[in-house]
Design brief:
The complex is a heterodimer.
Chain A: H1 4-12, H2 23-26, H3 29-32, H4 39-42, H5 53-74, H6 77-81, H7 85-115, H8 119-142, H9 144-149, H10 151-156, H11 165-179, H12 183-213, H13 216-232, H14 236-246, H15 248-275, H16 287-305, H17 314-334, H18 348-357, H19 362-379, E1 394-395, E2 416-420, E3 423-427, H20 430-438, H21 440-443, H22 449-454, H23 462-469, H24 487-496
Helix pairs in contact in A: 5-13, 7-8, 7-11, 7-12, 8-13, 12-13, 12-14, 12-15, 12-16, 14-15, 15-17, 17-19
Chain B: E1 2-9, E2 16-21, H1 26-37, E3 47-51, E4 54-55, E5 72-77
Parallel strand pairs in B: 1-5
Antiparallel strand pairs in B: 1-2, 3-4, 3-5
Classes of the chains: A mainly alpha, B alpha+beta.
Protein backbone atom coordinates (compact mmCIF):
# COMPACT_ATOMS: atom_id res chain seq x y z
CA UNK A 1 0.00 0.00 0.00
CA UNK A 2 1.33 3.47 -0.88
CA UNK A 3 2.16 5.80 1.98
CA UNK A 4 0.93 9.45 1.99
CA UNK A 5 4.08 10.82 0.44
CA UNK A 6 3.70 8.41 -2.47
CA UNK A 7 -0.02 8.65 -3.30
CA UNK A 8 -0.75 12.32 -2.56
CA UNK A 9 1.27 13.65 -5.54
CA UNK A 10 -0.50 11.11 -7.76
CA UNK A 11 -3.90 12.25 -6.50
CA UNK A 12 -3.08 15.96 -6.79
CA UNK A 13 -1.60 15.86 -10.26
CA UNK A 14 -4.04 14.18 -12.61
CA UNK A 15 -3.58 16.01 -15.89
CA UNK A 16 -3.66 14.25 -19.22
CA UNK A 17 -3.29 15.06 -22.91
CA UNK A 18 -6.53 15.67 -24.82
CA UNK A 19 -7.06 13.54 -27.91
CA UNK A 20 -10.33 14.70 -29.52
CA UNK A 21 -10.54 18.33 -28.37
CA UNK A 22 -7.97 21.10 -28.09
CA UNK A 23 -6.73 22.54 -24.84
CA UNK A 24 -8.29 25.89 -25.78
CA UNK A 25 -11.67 24.19 -26.11
CA UNK A 26 -11.35 22.57 -22.70
CA UNK A 27 -10.13 25.77 -21.07
CA UNK A 28 -11.55 28.71 -23.06
CA UNK A 29 -9.84 31.99 -22.25
CA UNK A 30 -13.14 33.71 -21.57
CA UNK A 31 -13.75 31.54 -18.51
CA UNK A 32 -10.30 30.18 -17.63
CA UNK A 33 -8.84 33.67 -17.78
CA UNK A 34 -5.90 35.40 -19.33
CA UNK A 35 -3.12 35.26 -20.19
CA UNK A 36 -3.97 31.99 -21.90
CA UNK A 37 -0.90 29.79 -21.56
CA UNK A 38 -0.50 26.13 -22.54
CA UNK A 39 -0.58 23.62 -19.72
CA UNK A 40 3.14 23.02 -20.08
CA UNK A 41 3.61 26.40 -18.37
CA UNK A 42 1.11 25.67 -15.58
CA UNK A 43 2.18 22.08 -14.89
CA UNK A 44 4.56 22.99 -12.04
CA UNK A 45 1.80 24.84 -10.18
CA UNK A 46 2.26 24.03 -6.47
CA UNK A 47 0.24 25.01 -3.44
CA UNK A 48 1.91 25.63 -0.07
CA UNK A 49 -0.48 23.60 2.09
CA UNK A 50 -0.90 20.15 0.63
CA UNK A 51 -3.81 18.21 1.99
CA UNK A 52 -5.88 15.18 1.16
CA UNK A 53 -9.66 14.92 1.30
CA UNK A 54 -9.48 12.69 4.38
CA UNK A 55 -7.23 15.18 6.18
CA UNK A 56 -9.44 18.04 5.10
CA UNK A 57 -12.61 16.44 6.45
CA UNK A 58 -10.97 15.49 9.76
CA UNK A 59 -9.62 19.02 10.26
CA UNK A 60 -12.91 20.69 9.35
CA UNK A 61 -14.81 18.36 11.65
CA UNK A 62 -12.57 19.35 14.56
CA UNK A 63 -13.01 23.04 13.77
CA UNK A 64 -16.79 22.69 13.57
CA UNK A 65 -16.86 20.87 16.92
CA UNK A 66 -14.89 23.74 18.49
CA UNK A 67 -17.36 26.29 17.10
CA UNK A 68 -20.33 24.26 18.37
CA UNK A 69 -18.71 24.00 21.82
CA UNK A 70 -18.43 27.78 22.04
CA UNK A 71 -22.00 28.16 20.76
CA UNK A 72 -23.26 25.77 23.44
CA UNK A 73 -21.33 27.64 26.13
CA UNK A 74 -21.92 31.30 25.20
CA UNK A 75 -24.18 31.34 22.14
CA UNK A 76 -27.56 31.66 23.75
CA UNK A 77 -29.85 34.57 23.00
CA UNK A 78 -29.27 36.08 26.44
CA UNK A 79 -25.52 36.14 25.74
CA UNK A 80 -26.08 38.28 22.67
CA UNK A 81 -28.62 40.44 24.48
CA UNK A 82 -26.03 41.26 27.15
CA UNK A 83 -23.66 42.84 24.60
CA UNK A 84 -23.46 46.61 24.03
CA UNK A 85 -26.30 47.75 21.77
CA UNK A 86 -24.08 49.44 19.14
CA UNK A 87 -22.04 46.22 18.85
CA UNK A 88 -25.22 44.18 18.33
CA UNK A 89 -26.06 46.54 15.48
CA UNK A 90 -22.64 45.92 13.98
CA UNK A 91 -23.53 42.21 14.02
CA UNK A 92 -26.52 43.03 11.82
CA UNK A 93 -24.13 44.40 9.19
CA UNK A 94 -22.19 41.13 9.15
CA UNK A 95 -25.36 39.00 9.34
CA UNK A 96 -26.53 40.68 6.14
CA UNK A 97 -23.37 40.88 4.07
CA UNK A 98 -21.25 37.89 5.09
CA UNK A 99 -23.16 34.61 4.53
CA UNK A 100 -24.24 34.97 0.91
CA UNK A 101 -21.00 36.72 -0.04
CA UNK A 102 -19.28 33.55 1.13
CA UNK A 103 -21.73 31.53 -0.92
CA UNK A 104 -20.75 33.45 -4.05
CA UNK A 105 -17.12 32.63 -3.22
CA UNK A 106 -18.08 28.94 -3.28
CA UNK A 107 -19.29 29.45 -6.86
CA UNK A 108 -16.10 31.35 -7.74
CA UNK A 109 -14.01 28.49 -6.38
CA UNK A 110 -16.09 25.99 -8.33
CA UNK A 111 -15.06 27.88 -11.45
CA UNK A 112 -11.49 27.17 -10.38
CA UNK A 113 -12.45 23.53 -9.82
CA UNK A 114 -13.44 23.23 -13.47
CA UNK A 115 -11.40 25.85 -15.29
CA UNK A 116 -8.23 26.15 -13.20
CA UNK A 117 -5.29 25.41 -15.44
CA UNK A 118 -3.64 22.68 -13.39
CA UNK A 119 -5.10 19.67 -11.62
CA UNK A 120 -3.53 20.56 -8.26
CA UNK A 121 -5.10 24.03 -8.51
CA UNK A 122 -8.45 22.43 -9.32
CA UNK A 123 -8.18 20.07 -6.35
CA UNK A 124 -7.35 22.92 -3.97
CA UNK A 125 -10.18 25.04 -5.34
CA UNK A 126 -12.52 22.16 -4.51
CA UNK A 127 -11.49 22.43 -0.86
CA UNK A 128 -11.85 26.20 -1.18
CA UNK A 129 -15.44 25.78 -2.39
CA UNK A 130 -16.20 23.47 0.53
CA UNK A 131 -14.68 26.08 2.86
CA UNK A 132 -16.94 28.76 1.48
CA UNK A 133 -20.04 26.61 1.92
CA UNK A 134 -18.97 26.27 5.55
CA UNK A 135 -18.57 30.05 5.82
CA UNK A 136 -22.09 30.48 4.48
CA UNK A 137 -23.57 27.97 6.87
CA UNK A 138 -21.80 28.96 10.10
CA UNK A 139 -23.09 32.55 10.36
CA UNK A 140 -26.55 31.45 9.19
CA UNK A 141 -26.59 28.78 11.88
CA UNK A 142 -25.13 30.82 14.72
CA UNK A 143 -27.25 33.91 14.12
CA UNK A 144 -30.46 32.02 13.42
CA UNK A 145 -31.50 32.34 17.06
CA UNK A 146 -31.53 36.13 16.64
CA UNK A 147 -34.06 36.14 13.82
CA UNK A 148 -37.03 35.60 16.12
CA UNK A 149 -35.74 38.13 18.65
CA UNK A 150 -35.10 41.12 16.40
CA UNK A 151 -36.78 42.00 13.11
CA UNK A 152 -33.60 43.65 11.80
CA UNK A 153 -31.70 40.36 12.09
CA UNK A 154 -34.55 38.75 10.17
CA UNK A 155 -34.32 41.43 7.48
CA UNK A 156 -30.55 40.88 7.29
CA UNK A 157 -31.29 37.45 5.79
CA UNK A 158 -33.26 39.13 2.98
CA UNK A 159 -30.53 41.69 2.36
CA UNK A 160 -29.19 40.46 -1.00
CA UNK A 161 -32.72 39.88 -2.26
CA UNK A 162 -33.61 43.55 -1.90
CA UNK A 163 -32.54 46.64 -3.79
CA UNK A 164 -31.28 48.38 -0.68
CA UNK A 165 -28.39 50.65 -1.69
CA UNK A 166 -25.85 48.67 0.34
CA UNK A 167 -27.14 45.47 -1.27
CA UNK A 168 -26.75 47.05 -4.72
CA UNK A 169 -23.14 47.97 -3.85
CA UNK A 170 -22.36 44.55 -2.36
CA UNK A 171 -23.93 42.69 -5.29
CA UNK A 172 -22.03 44.87 -7.77
CA UNK A 173 -18.83 43.90 -5.96
CA UNK A 174 -19.44 40.19 -5.43
CA UNK A 175 -21.10 39.61 -8.80
CA UNK A 176 -17.90 40.78 -10.43
CA UNK A 177 -15.47 39.29 -7.93
CA UNK A 178 -16.95 35.82 -7.71
CA UNK A 179 -20.06 35.02 -9.74
CA UNK A 180 -19.17 36.41 -13.14
CA UNK A 181 -15.44 35.96 -13.02
CA UNK A 182 -12.91 33.87 -14.90
CA UNK A 183 -10.72 31.48 -12.92
CA UNK A 184 -7.49 33.51 -13.06
CA UNK A 185 -8.98 36.85 -12.06
CA UNK A 186 -11.11 35.17 -9.39
CA UNK A 187 -8.14 33.44 -7.75
CA UNK A 188 -5.99 36.59 -7.79
CA UNK A 189 -8.72 39.03 -6.76
CA UNK A 190 -10.29 36.79 -4.14
CA UNK A 191 -7.38 34.76 -2.79
CA UNK A 192 -4.63 37.36 -2.94
CA UNK A 193 -6.33 40.74 -2.55
CA UNK A 194 -9.43 39.89 -0.52
CA UNK A 195 -8.27 36.93 1.56
CA UNK A 196 -4.59 37.70 2.05
CA UNK A 197 -5.43 41.33 2.66
CA UNK A 198 -8.86 42.60 3.53
CA UNK A 199 -10.49 39.66 5.27
CA UNK A 200 -7.78 40.02 7.89
CA UNK A 201 -9.56 43.21 8.89
CA UNK A 202 -12.81 41.35 9.24
CA UNK A 203 -11.58 38.06 10.66
CA UNK A 204 -8.53 39.08 12.70
CA UNK A 205 -9.01 42.77 13.53
CA UNK A 206 -12.70 42.52 14.22
CA UNK A 207 -12.15 39.27 16.14
CA UNK A 208 -9.88 41.09 18.58
CA UNK A 209 -12.53 43.76 19.06
CA UNK A 210 -15.16 41.03 19.55
CA UNK A 211 -12.98 39.56 22.28
CA UNK A 212 -12.87 42.90 24.09
CA UNK A 213 -16.59 43.41 23.52
CA UNK A 214 -17.26 40.03 25.18
CA UNK A 215 -18.75 38.57 21.99
CA UNK A 216 -16.96 35.23 22.15
CA UNK A 217 -19.29 33.55 19.68
CA UNK A 218 -18.53 36.08 16.93
CA UNK A 219 -14.85 35.92 17.84
CA UNK A 220 -14.82 32.12 17.51
CA UNK A 221 -16.85 32.20 14.32
CA UNK A 222 -14.58 34.56 12.43
CA UNK A 223 -11.31 33.10 13.71
CA UNK A 224 -12.50 29.64 12.65
CA UNK A 225 -13.39 31.01 9.23
CA UNK A 226 -10.00 32.70 9.01
CA UNK A 227 -8.15 29.38 9.44
CA UNK A 228 -9.81 28.19 6.23
CA UNK A 229 -9.11 31.47 4.45
CA UNK A 230 -5.43 31.26 5.36
CA UNK A 231 -5.21 27.84 3.70
CA UNK A 232 -7.21 28.34 0.52
CA UNK A 233 -5.94 31.88 -0.09
CA UNK A 234 -2.65 30.17 -1.00
CA UNK A 235 -4.24 29.09 -4.31
CA UNK A 236 -3.92 32.63 -5.60
CA UNK A 237 -0.22 33.07 -4.95
CA UNK A 238 1.18 30.66 -7.57
CA UNK A 239 -1.47 31.92 -10.03
CA UNK A 240 -0.35 35.51 -9.47
CA UNK A 241 3.31 34.48 -9.78
CA UNK A 242 2.74 32.97 -13.24
CA UNK A 243 0.63 35.89 -14.49
CA UNK A 244 3.31 38.24 -13.17
CA UNK A 245 5.94 36.31 -15.09
CA UNK A 246 4.06 36.30 -18.41
CA UNK A 247 1.98 39.48 -18.29
CA UNK A 248 3.19 41.72 -15.46
CA UNK A 249 1.21 44.82 -16.48
CA UNK A 250 -2.03 42.79 -16.29
CA UNK A 251 -1.09 41.42 -12.87
CA UNK A 252 -0.46 44.97 -11.68
CA UNK A 253 -3.82 46.10 -13.10
CA UNK A 254 -5.68 43.35 -11.27
CA UNK A 255 -3.99 44.27 -8.00
CA UNK A 256 -4.70 47.99 -8.46
CA UNK A 257 -8.31 47.40 -9.43
CA UNK A 258 -9.19 44.93 -6.71
CA UNK A 259 -7.35 46.71 -3.95
CA UNK A 260 -9.43 49.80 -4.59
CA UNK A 261 -12.72 47.91 -4.90
CA UNK A 262 -12.03 46.08 -1.64
CA UNK A 263 -10.92 49.25 0.09
CA UNK A 264 -14.19 51.05 -0.56
CA UNK A 265 -16.47 48.18 0.42
CA UNK A 266 -14.53 47.32 3.56
CA UNK A 267 -14.38 50.96 4.62
CA UNK A 268 -18.11 50.73 5.01
CA UNK A 269 -18.42 47.17 6.33
CA UNK A 270 -15.50 47.13 8.72
CA UNK A 271 -14.48 50.76 9.21
CA UNK A 272 -17.90 51.70 10.52
CA UNK A 273 -18.08 48.66 12.82
CA UNK A 274 -14.65 49.29 14.30
CA UNK A 275 -14.68 53.03 14.88
CA UNK A 276 -18.35 53.74 15.58
CA UNK A 277 -20.25 50.57 16.54
CA UNK A 278 -17.60 49.37 19.00
CA UNK A 279 -17.68 51.05 22.40
CA UNK A 280 -14.71 53.30 23.13
CA UNK A 281 -13.32 51.21 25.98
CA UNK A 282 -13.51 48.10 23.78
CA UNK A 283 -11.50 49.50 20.88
CA UNK A 284 -8.00 48.03 20.96
CA UNK A 285 -7.05 49.92 17.81
CA UNK A 286 -8.65 52.17 15.23
CA UNK A 287 -9.67 51.06 11.74
CA UNK A 288 -6.72 53.05 10.43
CA UNK A 289 -4.31 51.22 12.71
CA UNK A 290 -5.68 47.85 11.63
CA UNK A 291 -5.36 48.94 7.99
CA UNK A 292 -1.79 50.08 8.56
CA UNK A 293 -0.83 46.80 10.23
CA UNK A 294 -2.64 44.32 7.97
CA UNK A 295 -2.73 46.11 4.65
CA UNK A 296 -0.13 48.84 4.41
CA UNK A 297 2.63 46.82 6.08
CA UNK A 298 2.00 43.09 5.74
CA UNK A 299 -0.01 42.88 2.55
CA UNK A 300 2.27 45.13 0.58
CA UNK A 301 5.31 43.24 1.76
CA UNK A 302 3.65 40.24 0.14
CA UNK A 303 3.06 42.13 -3.12
CA UNK A 304 6.64 43.33 -3.07
CA UNK A 305 7.78 39.71 -3.02
CA UNK A 306 5.97 39.24 -6.35
CA UNK A 307 7.67 42.30 -7.82
CA UNK A 308 4.42 44.28 -7.81
CA UNK A 309 4.34 47.99 -7.12
CA UNK A 310 2.03 49.96 -4.89
CA UNK A 311 -1.06 51.07 -6.84
CA UNK A 312 -0.70 54.34 -8.77
CA UNK A 313 -3.32 55.98 -6.51
CA UNK A 314 -1.38 55.25 -3.32
CA UNK A 315 -1.41 58.88 -2.11
CA UNK A 316 -5.17 59.09 -2.72
CA UNK A 317 -5.63 55.90 -0.71
CA UNK A 318 -3.53 57.20 2.22
CA UNK A 319 -5.61 60.35 2.26
CA UNK A 320 -8.87 58.39 2.18
CA UNK A 321 -7.60 56.30 5.08
CA UNK A 322 -7.91 59.47 7.17
CA UNK A 323 -11.44 60.40 6.21
CA UNK A 324 -13.44 58.15 3.85
CA UNK A 325 -15.24 55.90 6.34
CA UNK A 326 -15.98 58.93 8.52
CA UNK A 327 -17.69 60.61 5.58
CA UNK A 328 -19.62 57.40 4.93
CA UNK A 329 -20.67 56.99 8.55
CA UNK A 330 -21.91 60.56 8.99
CA UNK A 331 -23.79 60.18 5.71
CA UNK A 332 -25.23 56.84 6.79
CA UNK A 333 -26.26 58.24 10.17
CA UNK A 334 -28.27 61.00 8.51
CA UNK A 335 -29.83 58.43 6.15
CA UNK A 336 -30.19 55.70 8.77
CA UNK A 337 -33.76 54.78 7.75
CA UNK A 338 -32.26 53.50 4.48
CA UNK A 339 -30.34 50.86 6.48
CA UNK A 340 -31.34 47.81 8.49
CA UNK A 341 -29.32 48.48 11.63
CA UNK A 342 -29.32 51.24 14.20
CA UNK A 343 -26.56 53.82 14.39
CA UNK A 344 -25.09 55.82 17.22
CA UNK A 345 -23.92 59.42 17.58
CA UNK A 346 -20.24 59.57 18.60
CA UNK A 347 -20.04 61.02 22.10
CA UNK A 348 -17.66 63.85 23.03
CA UNK A 349 -15.22 61.21 24.33
CA UNK A 350 -15.51 59.28 21.05
CA UNK A 351 -14.87 62.46 19.12
CA UNK A 352 -11.78 63.26 21.17
CA UNK A 353 -10.49 59.75 20.41
CA UNK A 354 -11.32 60.10 16.73
CA UNK A 355 -9.51 63.43 16.64
CA UNK A 356 -6.41 61.77 18.11
CA UNK A 357 -6.60 58.89 15.63
CA UNK A 358 -7.51 60.94 12.57
CA UNK A 359 -6.11 64.44 13.15
CA UNK A 360 -5.77 65.44 9.49
CA UNK A 361 -9.43 66.14 8.71
CA UNK A 362 -11.30 65.57 11.95
CA UNK A 363 -12.14 69.26 12.47
CA UNK A 364 -14.36 69.13 9.39
CA UNK A 365 -16.08 65.95 10.56
CA UNK A 366 -16.55 67.35 14.04
CA UNK A 367 -18.43 70.31 12.59
CA UNK A 368 -20.86 67.87 10.95
CA UNK A 369 -21.50 66.02 14.23
CA UNK A 370 -21.90 69.30 16.06
CA UNK A 371 -24.55 70.28 13.57
CA UNK A 372 -26.42 66.95 13.89
CA UNK A 373 -26.24 67.19 17.70
CA UNK A 374 -27.70 70.67 17.50
CA UNK A 375 -30.64 69.28 15.52
CA UNK A 376 -31.28 66.65 18.23
CA UNK A 377 -31.15 69.38 20.87
CA UNK A 378 -33.81 71.34 19.05
CA UNK A 379 -35.98 68.35 18.15
CA UNK A 380 -35.73 66.70 21.56
CA UNK A 381 -35.08 63.02 22.09
CA UNK A 382 -37.58 60.26 21.38
CA UNK A 383 -38.65 58.10 18.47
CA UNK A 384 -41.11 60.79 17.36
CA UNK A 385 -38.11 63.08 16.67
CA UNK A 386 -36.22 60.58 14.49
CA UNK A 387 -37.37 61.99 11.18
CA UNK A 388 -36.61 65.55 12.30
CA UNK A 389 -33.00 64.46 12.52
CA UNK A 390 -32.93 62.63 9.20
CA UNK A 391 -32.03 63.73 5.68
CA UNK A 392 -34.71 63.59 2.98
CA UNK A 393 -32.92 64.54 -0.25
CA UNK A 394 -32.03 61.63 -2.50
CA UNK A 395 -28.39 60.64 -1.85
CA UNK A 396 -26.22 60.19 -4.93
CA UNK A 397 -24.06 57.15 -5.68
CA UNK A 398 -20.88 56.28 -7.54
CA UNK A 399 -21.33 54.52 -10.89
CA UNK A 400 -18.45 52.16 -10.08
CA UNK A 401 -18.44 51.24 -6.38
CA UNK A 402 -22.16 52.09 -5.97
CA UNK A 403 -21.44 53.67 -2.60
CA UNK A 404 -22.48 57.25 -1.75
CA UNK A 405 -20.55 60.14 -3.30
CA UNK A 406 -18.61 60.57 -0.06
CA UNK A 407 -14.99 60.52 -1.21
CA UNK A 408 -12.49 63.33 -0.87
CA UNK A 409 -13.02 65.59 2.10
CA UNK A 410 -15.89 67.78 3.30
CA UNK A 411 -14.03 70.73 1.82
CA UNK A 412 -13.35 69.08 -1.50
CA UNK A 413 -15.58 66.19 -2.54
CA UNK A 414 -13.82 64.39 -5.39
CA UNK A 415 -16.92 63.27 -7.33
CA UNK A 416 -16.46 63.70 -11.06
CA UNK A 417 -18.74 63.36 -14.08
CA UNK A 418 -17.96 61.43 -17.27
CA UNK A 419 -19.89 61.73 -20.52
CA UNK A 420 -19.58 58.56 -22.61
CA UNK A 421 -21.63 57.25 -25.52
CA UNK A 422 -24.52 59.58 -24.80
CA UNK A 423 -24.72 58.75 -21.13
CA UNK A 424 -23.49 60.61 -18.05
CA UNK A 425 -21.73 58.73 -15.29
CA UNK A 426 -20.54 60.04 -11.96
CA UNK A 427 -17.70 58.61 -9.89
CA UNK A 428 -16.81 59.28 -6.30
CA UNK A 429 -13.07 59.23 -6.93
CA UNK A 430 -10.38 59.11 -9.59
CA UNK A 431 -9.60 55.39 -9.03
CA UNK A 432 -13.29 54.45 -9.47
CA UNK A 433 -13.34 56.41 -12.74
CA UNK A 434 -10.05 54.77 -13.82
CA UNK A 435 -11.43 51.26 -13.20
CA UNK A 436 -14.59 52.07 -15.15
CA UNK A 437 -12.63 53.43 -18.11
CA UNK A 438 -10.40 50.36 -18.16
CA UNK A 439 -13.35 48.00 -18.67
CA UNK A 440 -16.34 50.14 -19.69
CA UNK A 441 -18.05 47.23 -21.44
CA UNK A 442 -18.22 45.51 -18.07
CA UNK A 443 -19.71 48.37 -16.08
CA UNK A 444 -21.52 50.75 -18.43
CA UNK A 445 -24.83 48.90 -18.47
CA UNK A 446 -25.30 48.89 -14.72
CA UNK A 447 -27.63 51.50 -13.25
CA UNK A 448 -26.90 53.09 -9.89
CA UNK A 449 -29.83 53.96 -7.67
CA UNK A 450 -30.22 57.50 -9.00
CA UNK A 451 -30.38 56.26 -12.61
CA UNK A 452 -33.00 53.72 -11.55
CA UNK A 453 -35.09 56.51 -10.06
CA UNK A 454 -34.69 58.62 -13.18
CA UNK A 455 -35.70 55.74 -15.46
CA UNK A 456 -38.76 54.97 -13.33
CA UNK A 457 -37.45 51.59 -12.14
CA UNK A 458 -37.29 52.84 -8.57
CA UNK A 459 -39.72 55.24 -6.89
CA UNK A 460 -38.68 58.88 -6.65
CA UNK A 461 -40.63 59.42 -3.46
CA UNK A 462 -38.24 58.79 -0.59
CA UNK A 463 -40.69 57.05 1.72
CA UNK A 464 -41.88 54.76 -1.07
CA UNK A 465 -38.27 54.03 -1.98
CA UNK A 466 -37.68 52.77 1.56
CA UNK A 467 -40.74 50.58 1.73
CA UNK A 468 -41.26 49.39 -1.86
CA UNK A 469 -37.70 49.23 -3.19
CA UNK A 470 -35.54 48.65 -0.11
CA UNK A 471 -38.29 46.54 1.49
CA UNK A 472 -37.79 48.18 4.86
CA UNK A 473 -40.56 48.92 7.34
CA UNK A 474 -40.72 51.13 10.42
CA UNK A 475 -39.77 48.10 12.52
CA UNK A 476 -36.75 47.20 10.39
CA UNK A 477 -35.31 50.48 9.15
CA UNK A 478 -32.39 51.98 10.99
CA UNK A 479 -32.79 54.43 13.82
CA UNK A 480 -30.62 56.17 16.35
CA UNK A 481 -29.69 53.49 18.89
CA UNK A 482 -30.79 55.74 21.76
CA UNK A 483 -33.43 57.82 19.93
CA UNK A 484 -31.28 60.88 20.60
CA UNK A 485 -31.44 60.32 24.34
CA UNK A 486 -27.76 60.83 25.13
CA UNK A 487 -26.74 61.93 28.59
CA UNK A 488 -24.03 64.14 27.13
CA UNK A 489 -26.48 65.73 24.73
CA UNK A 490 -28.97 66.54 27.47
CA UNK A 491 -26.26 67.96 29.73
CA UNK A 492 -25.12 70.13 26.83
CA UNK A 493 -28.79 70.97 26.30
CA UNK A 494 -29.17 71.96 29.95
CA UNK A 495 -26.03 74.08 29.91
CA UNK A 496 -27.47 76.04 26.97
CA UNK A 497 -30.63 76.93 28.89
CA UNK B 1 -38.42 71.29 -17.57
CA UNK B 2 -37.23 69.15 -14.62
CA UNK B 3 -33.47 68.99 -14.33
CA UNK B 4 -31.81 66.39 -12.08
CA UNK B 5 -28.47 67.67 -10.81
CA UNK B 6 -25.79 66.51 -8.40
CA UNK B 7 -25.36 69.13 -5.67
CA UNK B 8 -22.35 69.41 -3.37
CA UNK B 9 -21.95 71.78 -0.45
CA UNK B 10 -18.57 72.67 0.95
CA UNK B 11 -18.37 71.09 4.40
CA UNK B 12 -20.78 68.23 3.63
CA UNK B 13 -20.10 64.49 3.53
CA UNK B 14 -22.07 63.52 0.40
CA UNK B 15 -23.45 64.79 -2.89
CA UNK B 16 -27.23 64.75 -3.27
CA UNK B 17 -29.67 64.63 -6.15
CA UNK B 18 -31.47 67.93 -6.62
CA UNK B 19 -34.57 68.17 -8.80
CA UNK B 20 -34.29 71.63 -10.30
CA UNK B 21 -36.20 73.42 -13.03
CA UNK B 22 -34.57 75.10 -16.02
CA UNK B 23 -36.61 78.25 -15.42
CA UNK B 24 -35.57 78.77 -11.83
CA UNK B 25 -32.79 81.05 -10.70
CA UNK B 26 -29.37 80.06 -9.47
CA UNK B 27 -30.37 81.58 -6.14
CA UNK B 28 -33.41 79.29 -5.90
CA UNK B 29 -31.23 76.31 -6.77
CA UNK B 30 -28.80 77.26 -4.02
CA UNK B 31 -31.68 77.43 -1.54
CA UNK B 32 -32.89 73.95 -2.56
CA UNK B 33 -29.43 72.58 -1.91
CA UNK B 34 -29.12 74.40 1.42
CA UNK B 35 -32.40 72.89 2.57
CA UNK B 36 -31.29 69.43 1.43
CA UNK B 37 -28.09 69.42 3.48
CA UNK B 38 -29.03 71.57 6.45
CA UNK B 39 -28.94 68.59 8.81
CA UNK B 40 -25.21 68.14 8.28
CA UNK B 41 -23.77 71.49 7.31
CA UNK B 42 -24.35 75.11 8.12
CA UNK B 43 -24.61 77.30 5.05
CA UNK B 44 -24.69 81.05 4.68
CA UNK B 45 -25.68 83.64 2.12
CA UNK B 46 -21.99 84.27 1.61
CA UNK B 47 -21.73 81.07 -0.40
CA UNK B 48 -21.83 80.99 -4.19
CA UNK B 49 -22.91 78.47 -6.78
CA UNK B 50 -20.04 77.15 -8.89
CA UNK B 51 -20.78 75.32 -12.15
CA UNK B 52 -18.22 74.16 -14.68
CA UNK B 53 -15.51 76.06 -12.81
CA UNK B 54 -17.26 79.44 -12.75
CA UNK B 55 -19.12 81.25 -9.97
CA UNK B 56 -22.62 82.15 -11.16
CA UNK B 57 -24.76 85.24 -10.87
CA UNK B 58 -27.56 84.28 -8.44
CA UNK B 59 -30.15 86.08 -10.55
CA UNK B 60 -29.73 84.16 -13.82
CA UNK B 61 -31.85 81.14 -14.64
CA UNK B 62 -30.40 77.67 -14.94
CA UNK B 63 -31.25 77.68 -18.63
CA UNK B 64 -29.24 80.86 -19.18
CA UNK B 65 -26.38 79.40 -17.16
CA UNK B 66 -26.47 76.35 -19.49
CA UNK B 67 -27.14 73.79 -16.80
CA UNK B 68 -27.48 70.25 -18.17
CA UNK B 69 -28.96 67.15 -16.54
CA UNK B 70 -26.80 64.97 -14.29
CA UNK B 71 -24.01 67.51 -13.97
CA UNK B 72 -22.27 68.55 -10.80
CA UNK B 73 -22.67 71.95 -9.20
CA UNK B 74 -21.22 73.20 -5.96
CA UNK B 75 -22.20 75.59 -3.23
CA UNK B 76 -18.93 77.02 -1.92
CA UNK B 77 -17.71 79.65 0.39
CA UNK B 78 -16.45 82.58 -1.63
CA UNK B 79 -12.71 82.21 -2.30
CA UNK B 80 -12.99 78.54 -1.31
CA UNK B 81 -10.95 75.77 -2.88
CA UNK B 82 -11.48 75.16 -6.58
CA UNK B 83 -14.16 72.84 -7.89
CA UNK B 84 -13.18 69.28 -8.72
CA UNK B 85 -13.11 68.16 -12.34
CA UNK B 86 -16.60 68.25 -13.70
CA UNK B 87 -16.59 66.46 -16.98
CA UNK B 88 -14.64 63.99 -18.94
Amino acid sequence: MLNRGEWLPLARKLDWNFSYVTEQEVFPEVISGRPWLPHGIWKDWEESFKTSYREYVENQHEKDMAVYAVRDAVGRLENVQSLATPWINGLKVHAAVLPLAEFTAAIGNLRGVRFGRDSAWRAMACFGALDEFRHTQIPLLLMHELVRWNAQFDWAHKFYHTNNWVAIAARHFFDELTLGQNAIEFQIATNVILETGFTNLQFVGLASLAHKAGDHLFEKMVTSIQTDEARHSQIGHPVLALVMKHKPEYAQYLVDKWFWRNWHLFSFLTGVSMDYLTAGEQRSASFKEFMEEWIVDQFFRTLDEFGLKKPWYWDIFLDELEIYHHMLYATAYTYRATLWFDLVMPSPADRRWLRQQYPKYWDDMDAVWERIGERWRRAGSGRESEMSVHATAMPAFCDLCQLPLSAGTPRNNTANVLARDGRDYIFCSEPCRWIFLHEPERYAGHKDLVKRVLSGEAPADFATLLTDYFHLTPSTWGKDVYAGDYEWLSSERASLR
Amino acid sequence: MPLPLYGFVEGDTIGVLIWADEGESVQALAQRLRDAVSLRVETSDEMEVVYRGAALDPAVTLEHAHFAALQRFDLRRKHGVSESRNSG
